[in-house]
C-alpha cells in the first residue's frame, strides 16, 4: 500500500536528501501534468514501432524517461482523475464511477486535491481541459485549488456541438429549433450544448471542437507566461480532449494509414510538443513535465479507438467483450507515461518500475517541499528515486478497481503483486462487434504471470507449483489491502442528479445556445450552490 513503514521513510528520506540538492538551490520546480484521454499504450511510437504519428512524444521519451509498466488508477474517466488529484483510490476518495451532466455532486469536498496542497505551498495553479469531477457549486475546479480554469466540465461527448466530429454512432449537430431538440439518438447528447468555461464563466456554448486543441495550447502558454512573470512556481494540469471521441475534423486531409484517428493523434502530439517548447523557453531545467493516459482505449469505437500494443487480454477476448477501457485487464489501465526534466531526470531511459497515476500526487508534493494532508492514507508513493534514476522499484502491490465492465464500481477485485496479476472478478466491456463479456467470479483467483504472458492469455493452473507458491502471498496482500481501506478515513461522493445542475448559459434558447465575446462577463443567475444555470 502507499503508506511506507517508519524505517522505509528514514531510508527514503536519506535518498531524497541527496537527490534534492540540484533543485533545492534553485527554488521549487514547476510542474506540468498532461493527461491524455482514452489513449492506448501502443499509441506512443516509442512504445510501439507501428505508430508513426507521435514524433514530439517520442522526442520527449528520448530526452526523458519512459515508463513501460505505468497504470491509471482506474479504467474510466472520473475515478481515474479523482485518484490522480488525491493520490487515493476511489474506494477511499468516494469517486467510483463517472459524473453526469446533471450531477449535483463531485469529488467530495473533504478530499484535498493536489492543487490545494501546491497552492498552499506558494504555487500558481491552473487547470486546462476536461474536469469531470463535478461542476455544480463548489465542486467546480475554481473551488478545488485552481487559480485558473479553462475547459469543458466533463467529457466532450456529453453535449452537442455545431461541429460534431467523428463518433460511432455519429451524432447530430446541436438543434437550432425547438422541434429538433426533442430528437434523440442513442449514445448522443442532443438537448444541451457542450459548454466551454473560463473560471466560472461559460464563454461559449456550444464549444467549437475544431479549434479546441489550439485554444488549449494558447491558454496553457498564457498561463505559463503569467506564472513565470509573477516569479511564483506553477502547477499546470492539462487534461486533453484527445483521444476521446468525438475526434475532431483535422485541418488537413488525413495522411495514409490510420485515417481520422491517426490525424487526431498527430494533432495531440503537436500540442504536447508546443507545451514542451513553451516550458523550455521559460527556463529549461526548471519544469518537470509528466505525460500519462487516464485509461486505455475505448474499444467499442472501433477504428476511432487507440492501440493496445501487446496488452490484448486474450483470455477475455476468447469469452467475448473488450479487454480495454472499463476493464481491469492490462489494456484497460496500462497507459503510456513519460517524464521530462532536463538536468534532473535521465534521458534515454526506460523504467520497468510498477508505477501509477496515484504516484503523481505524493511525488509532486514531496518535490515542492510540502506535506501530505493528514488523517488519511494514500495509495500513491513518492517515486522521486525512480524519476531520478536512483531506483527502479515502484509498488510491491498495486490495486486495480472495477471500472464498469464487471463487479461493483470501485470495488477492488484485481491486483498486481510483482510479476503476478490476480483476478477475483473478470468481465469484458463492449467490443467493436457489440459483444460484452459476462462477469465471472473466481475463487480461488485467476493468476497470470505477466513476465511470461503479457497478453493475459493463459492463467496459471491451480494445481501447478507456481500457483500454489504465489497464492498465499496474493491472498495475504489482498486481505491486507481491503482491511487498510476499511479502516481508513473514507469519503462518499454524492451521485444524485438534478436537471437544474446542467451548465446552461441561456435557458431561453434551444440547447442553451449562446455565444459571448471573450471579455463579456458572465455570472450565475443565483448564489453558487443552488440552481446551476449560467448566463453569458
Automatic annotation (TrEMBL):
The keyword Lipoprotein does not apply. Its cofactor is Ca(2+). It is an enzyme of class 3 (hydrolase). InterPro entries: Alkaline_phosphatase_core_sf, Sulfatase, Sulfatase_CS, Sulfatase_N. It is found in: Lysosome. Keywords: Calcium, Disulfide bond, Glycoprotein, Hydrolase, Lysosome, Metal-binding, Signal. The keyword Manganese does not apply. Pfam families: Sulfatase (PF00884), Sulfatase_C (PF14707). Residues 1-27 form the signal peptide. SUPFAM superfamilies: Alkaline phosphatase-like (SSF53649). Its EC number is 3.1.6.1, 3.1.6.15. It comes from the Eukaryota. Gene3D superfamilies: 3.30.1120.10, Alkaline Phosphatase, subunit A. GO terms for cellular component: lysosome. Belongs to the sulfatase family. This is Arylsulfatase G. It comes from Podargus strigoides (Tawny frogmouth). The gene is Arsg.
Amino acid at each position: 500500500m502507499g503508506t511506507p513503514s517508519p524505517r522505509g521513510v528514514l531510508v527514503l528520506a536519506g535518498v531524497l536528501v541527496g537527490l534534492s540538492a540540484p533543485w533545492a538551490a534553485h527554488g521549487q520546480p514547476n510542474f506540468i501534468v498532461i493527461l491524455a484521454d482514452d489513449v492506448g499504450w501502443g499509441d506512443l511510437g516509442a512504445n510501439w514501432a507501428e505508430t508513426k504519428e507521435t514524433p514530439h512524444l517520442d522526442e520527449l521519451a528520448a530526452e526523458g524517461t519512459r515508463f513501460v509498466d505505468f497504470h491509471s488508477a482506474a479504467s474510466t474517466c472520473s475515478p481515474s482523475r479523482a485518484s490522480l488529484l488525491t493520490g487515493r483510490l476511489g474506494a477511499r476518495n468516494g469517486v467510483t464511477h463517472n459524473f453526469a451532466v446533471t450531477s449535483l455532486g463531485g469529488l467530495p469536498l473533504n478530499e484535498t486535491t493536489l492543487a490545494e496542497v501546491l497552492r498552499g505551498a506558494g504555487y500558481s495553479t491552473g487547470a486546462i481541459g476536461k474536469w469531470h469531477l463535478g461542476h455544480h457549486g463548489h465542486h467546480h475546479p475554481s473551488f478545488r485549488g485552481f487559480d485558473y480554469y479553462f475547459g469543458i466540465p466533463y467529457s466532450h461527448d456529453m453535449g452537442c456541438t455545431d461541429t460534431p466530429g467523428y463518433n460511432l454512432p455519429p451524432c447530430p449537430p446541436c438543434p437550432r429549433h425547438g422541434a429538433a431538440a426533442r430528437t434523440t439518438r442513442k449514445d448522443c447528447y442532443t438537448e444541451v450544448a457542450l459548454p466551454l468555461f473560463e473560471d466560472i464563466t461559460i464563454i461559449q456554448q456550444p464549444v467549437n471542437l475544431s479549434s479546441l486543441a489550439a485554444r488549449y495550447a494558447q491558454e496553457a502558454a498564457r498561463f505559463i507566461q503569467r506564472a513565470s512573470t509573477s516569479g511564483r512556481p506553477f502547477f499546470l494540469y492539462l487534461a486533453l480532449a484527445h483521444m476521446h471521441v468525438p475526434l475532431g475534423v483535422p485541418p488537413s486531409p488525413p495522411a495514409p494509414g490510420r485515417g481520422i484517428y491517426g490525424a487526431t493523434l498527430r494533432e495531440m502530439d503537436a500540442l504536447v510538443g508546443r507545451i514542451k517548447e513553451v516550458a523550455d523557453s521559460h527556463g529549461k531545467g526548471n519544469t518537470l513535465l509528466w505525460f500519462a493516459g487516464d485509461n486505455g482505449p475505448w474499444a467499442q469505437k472501433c477504428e476511432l479507438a487507440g492501440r493496445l500494443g501487446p496488452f490484448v487480454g486474450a483470455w477475455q477476448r476468447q469469452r467475448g467483450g473488450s479487454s480495454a477501457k472499463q476493464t481491469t485487464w492490462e489494456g484497460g489501465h496500462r497507459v503510456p507515461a513519460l517524464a521530462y526534466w532536463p538536468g534532473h531526470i535521465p534521458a534515454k531511459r526506460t523504467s520497468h518500475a510498477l508505477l501509477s497515476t496515484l504516484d503523481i500526487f505524493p511525488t509532486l508534493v514531496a518535490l515542492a517541499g510540502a506535506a501530505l494532508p493528514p488523517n488519511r492514507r494514500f495509495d500513491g508513493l513518492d517515486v522521486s528515486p525512480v524519476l531520478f534514476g536512483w531506483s527502479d522499484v515502484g509498488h510491491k502491490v498495486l490495486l486495480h478497481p472495477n471500472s464498469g465492465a464487471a463487479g461493483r464500481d470501485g470495488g477492488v477485485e484485481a491486483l498486481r503483486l510483482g510479476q503476478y496479476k490476480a483476478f477475483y472478478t473478470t468481465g469484458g466491456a463492449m467490443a467493436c462487434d457489440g459483444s460484452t463479456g459476462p462477469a465471472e467470479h473466481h475463487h480461488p483467483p485467476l493468476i497470470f504471470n505477466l513476465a511470461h504472458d503479457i497478453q493475459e492469455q493463459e492463467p496459471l493452473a491451480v494445481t501447478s507449483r507456481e500457483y500454489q507458491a504465489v497464492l498465499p502471498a496474493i491472498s495475504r496482500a489482498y486481505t491486507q489491502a481491503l482491511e487498510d481501506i476499511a479502516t481508513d478515513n473514507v469519503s462518499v461522493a454524492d451521485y444524485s442528479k438534478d436537471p437544474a445542475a446542467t451548465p446552461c448559459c441561456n435557458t431561453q434558447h434551444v440547447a442553451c445556445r449562446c455565444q459571448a465575446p471573450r471579455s463579456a462577463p458572465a455570472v450565475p443567475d443565483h448564489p453558487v450552490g443552488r440552481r446551476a444555470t449560467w448566463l453569458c
